[in-house]
Design the sequence.
């Protein structure tokens, strides 16, 4: 068997490198399709990342925080509980006037719509909000008692998550939460346009379970704020109540409506992994 010279080995190495490059180019569209499919499945059924645009949940969640939202457990019948922080679709009239027309043009526009659909880029017309569940179907939520505390089913609730200097509510209210709906409030009560400010809307300020996107369970970014979002014991320990059809809430005085921007981004990053054929590279 003839001995191959150095020049022959170099030519063989260059040919092998060209073959690998052509193979990667042929596989690249498949890699992209698989990555998009994985992103779509993750965004639709498992976990989605949202960026917080406002201070309505401070100090629990700050402006710019990235939160992970569990979209899987609702598929197995899990429902939000008192104290959960949930992301939900605008139930109607909460985000009026926030939609901005797109000026991306005829080429960029369709491409952006595809990437938005699979959750890889922000949407121009996100209509999601984030709040804490205070009452579930059947609960009576009222504020405030003689000590200025919020109560659920007649039991005063301690709220250590409230932003510093914020009372439970500056507007008195009392509401019975209808069946399959939620009463939600921000932790920064003075700037949160939550259920209190939409009692004149359909649903009397409550959010239907069908509009809930998922439960925020972790602040994932920035890393120095990485931690789990737990249910406060003062709310999670309350006994379950029978589901009611709901009654009209008592009227309350409502001041100027705070600005409540939608969650500006629903993003899921997917890094495709390229599986290379095993073998020792030629020298």
Sequence:
């Amino acid at each position: 068997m003839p001995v191959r010279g150095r020049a022959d080995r170099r030519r063989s190495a260059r040919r092998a490198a060209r073959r690998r490059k052509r193979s990667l180019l042929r596989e690249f569209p498949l890699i992209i399709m698989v990555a998009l499919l994985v992103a779509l499945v993750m965004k639709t059924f498992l976990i989605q990342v949202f960026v917080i645009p406002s201070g309505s949940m401070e100090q629990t969640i700050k402006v710019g925080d990235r939160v992970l939202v569990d979209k899987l457990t609702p598929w197995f019948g899990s429902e939000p509980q008192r104290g959960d922080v949930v992301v939900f679709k605008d139930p109607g009239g909460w985000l009026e006037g926030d939609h901005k027309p797109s000026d991306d043009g005829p080429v960029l526009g369709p491409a952006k719509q595809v990437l938005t659909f699979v959750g890889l880029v922000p949407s121009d017309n996100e209509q999601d909000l984030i709040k804490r569940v205070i009452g579930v179907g059947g609960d009576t939520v009222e504020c405030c008692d003689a000590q200025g505390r919020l109560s659920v089913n007649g039991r005063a609730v301690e709220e250590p998550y409230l932003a510093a200097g914020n009372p439970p509510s500056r507007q008195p209210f009392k509401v019975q939460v209808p069946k399959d709906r939620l009463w939600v409030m921000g932790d920064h009560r003075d700037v949160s346009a939550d259920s209190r400010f939409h009692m004149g809307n359909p649903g009397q300020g409550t959010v239907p379970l069908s509009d809930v996107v998922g439960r925020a369970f972790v602040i994932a970014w920035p890393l120095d704020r990485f931690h789990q979002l737990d249910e406060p014991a003062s709310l999670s320990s309350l006994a379950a109540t029978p589901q009611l059809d709901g009654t009209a809430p008592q009227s309350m005085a409502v001041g100027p409506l705070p600005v409540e921007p939608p969650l500006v981004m629903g993003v899921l990053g997917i890094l495709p992994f390229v599986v290379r054929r095993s073998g020792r590279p030629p020298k």
Remarks:
- Residues 269-283 have pLDDT under 50 and may be disordered.
